[in-house]
Specification:
With 183 residues, this protein is mostly helical. It is built from nine helices and two strands; from the N terminus they run E-E-H-H-H-H-H-H-H-H-H. It has one domain: Lysozyme, CATH 1.10.530. The longest helix is centred in the C-terminal third of the chain and has 21 residues. The radius of gyration is 15 Å and the shape is globular.
């Protein structure tokens, strides 16, 4: 199933992203964006971590078929790029619950993380992967309706506000990336 946002399909956005951002050798915009957010929390911003995080997001987005800029927006809203545990047991950068991760694993034939589901708290690679697959599941479930998928991703009583915030950050990330030289 091809998901749509407005009149543009997620597939078309991926192709455009790959051409404009992913194949560019200069993607400092990502490092700058994440550094700004993590510094606000007094977190490390070393170059190796930022490079690995960027590669993880880009690789997972290609594997799953979701715009990496959308993943960046979800991560920023969910956790400000921090490996944290939420008040309802949500874990890691994408704030995914253990039960949700198990459902995603079953649906997409993914293996449980080597050290168990708690690994999703500190292993941002696995966390982003499971969170991206969950978002894909929701996009497919709601026939590409991004707002509805985001509301369900959050599932809380402020889900409409959450979806609006992610969509706003998504636009900001796209603007930030393109104003910084296209990636």
């Amino acid at each position: 199933m091809i998901s749509t946002v407005g009149e543009t399909t997620i597939y078309e956005k991926r192709v455009v992203f790959k051409i404009v951002y992913n194949e560019s050798s200069d993607r400092e915009w990502f490092e700058d964006f994440v550094k700004k957010t993590r510094r606000n929390h007094g977190l490390p911003t070393n170059e190796d971590f930022l490079k690995d995080l960027k590669e993880t997001i880009f690789d997972v987005s290609e594997e799953v078929g979701i715009d990496p800029l959308l993943l960046i927006a979800v991560i920023e809203v969910e956790s400000d790029f921090r490996n944290i545990v939420g008040t309802s047991g949500e874990m890691g950068m994408m704030q995914i619950k253990k039960g949700t991760a198990k459902m995603v694993a079953e649906k997409f034939d993914l293996k449980e993380p080597e050290e168990g589901w708690e690994e999703l708290i500190w292993n941002y690679k696995e966390n982003i992967r499971f969170g991206a697959y969950y978002l894909k599941y929701l996009l497919d479930k709601f026939n590409g309706n991004l707002r509805r998928a985001l509301e369900t991703y959050n599932g809380g009583k402020w889900k409409e506000e959450y979806a609006e915030k992610v969509l706003k950050v998504y636009e900001e990330v796209k603007d930030y990336a393109s104003s910084s030289g296209g990636g």
